[in-house]
Amino acid sequence: MAGGERNVWIAAASGEQRWHTLREAASAEENRDERNQEGWIVLEGGGETRSGNGSYRSRRSAQMRQPARLRENESSRSRRRGGGSSGGRRRGGCRGAVLSFLCGVLVIFSAFLAGMGAGWYRWGREAGPRVELSSIEMPDWIEQDLIRKNIYSRPAVSLQYVNDIVVHYVANPGSTAEQNRNYFDGLADQGQEGGTSASAHFVIGLEGEIIQCIPIDEIAYASNNRNYDTISIECCHPDETGKFTDATYQSLVKLTAWLCDAVKIGREDVIRHYDVSGKACPLYFVDHEEAWEAFREDVKNQ
C-alpha cells in the first residue's frame, strides 16, 4: 500500500460494510467530509497507519470517528439497556419484598403454634367445664353446712372448672371441723376494716367427719392463685406435727377419690398447698414426702 494510504473497515447507515482506502495525504478535514457525505463510519482502525517515511502511528478509536447521528443512536441503545438493568433491579426488589413478607408470615405462624403449645394448660387443659359442677349431688356422708356469703370467705364467685384437688391442714392443733367451719363463717363479721380472707370447700375433723362449707361451683379462698380452678380440703390434726389421725386420713382418701371422679379429673390430679405456693402445708406431707406419695397411691386405689 502506498505511503499516503491505509485500508479501514467501514459501514454505511444502510448496513453495507466494505474496505475503504483513506488517503493519508488528504487532510483530516477532507477525510471527515468524505465519510460524512457518504454516510460511512470507520468500524475498526484497520491496522496501524503507515506514513511515507515508514514510521507508524497508533490507531484512533473508531467510536471517536462516528458521525454525531450514529453516536446518538448508540447512546440511545445504551440507555435502553440500562433501563433493562433497572427493571431487573426492580423485579429483584419485588422478589425480595415477597420473600420478606412470606418470612414474616412464617414467623407469625410459628409464634402462633408456640403460643398454642405454651398455652395448652389454660386453653387445652382448662377447656372446661368438663361437668356442670352445680349438678353434682353431695353423698350423705358429707355434712353440708354452708357459710354465709361475704367478701372475706365466700365471695360467691363461680368456679367454672376443676383441674386439681388441693390438700391443706388447719394449722390449729386440736381444733375440730365445726370450729374451723365457724371461723370461716365468722370472717363475714369483720366489717370494712377487716383484712383476713380464708375458707375451704371442705373441712375434715379429727373423728373423720366431713363438713362442706362452700358449694363446689364457687371458689374458696384457700389456694392462692389456684383458687379459680381447684377444690380445697382442710384437715384437722391433733398436734404440731400436722400428722392426721387415722380417721381423718381415711376420710381424706375417700373424699379426694370421690371428688376426682365427680368432677371428671384424674385421681393423680391431687396436689398440696405447698405445690402451689411453697407454704409448708399440709405440714406432715411436706416434711414426709414418702407419706404424701403413699397417700396419692391410696387415692388411686380407692
Could you write a compact summary of the structure shown?
This protein is an alpha/beta fold and 302 residues long. The chain has helices at residues 28-38, 62-65, 68-118, 120-125, 177-186, 246-262, 273-277, 283-287, 289-301; strands at residues 5-12, 17-23, 40-44, 49-50, 56-57, 143-144, 164-169, 202-204, 210-212, 230-235, 270-272.
If you compute it from the alpha carbons, what radius of gyration comes out, rounded to the nearest whole angstrom? Answer: 49 Å
Give the name of the CATH superfamily of the largest domain: Peptidoglycan recognition protein-like
| Mean pLDDT over all positions | 78
The helical percent reads 40-55%
- The tally of structural domains comes to 3
Report the end-to-end length measured between terminal Cα atoms. 122 Å
Strand content: 15-25%
Structural class call reads alpha/beta
CATH topology of the largest domain: Lysozyme-like
Annotation field: number of helices: 9
**Which regions have little confidence, pLDDT < 50, spanning 5+ residues?**
24-28, 33-38, 40-66, 120-129
Q: What is the CATH class name of the largest domain?
A: Alpha Beta
Written as H for each helix and E for each strand, in order along the chain, the element string is EEHEEEHHHEEHEEEHEHHH
Number of strands: 11
**Physical arrangement of strands within the biggest beta sheet:** 6-9-8-10-7-11
Largest sheet: 6 strands, mixed
The backbone outline, from C-alpha atoms, is elongated
Instruction: Please identify, by name, the CATH architecture of the largest domain.
Output: 3-Layer(aba) Sandwich
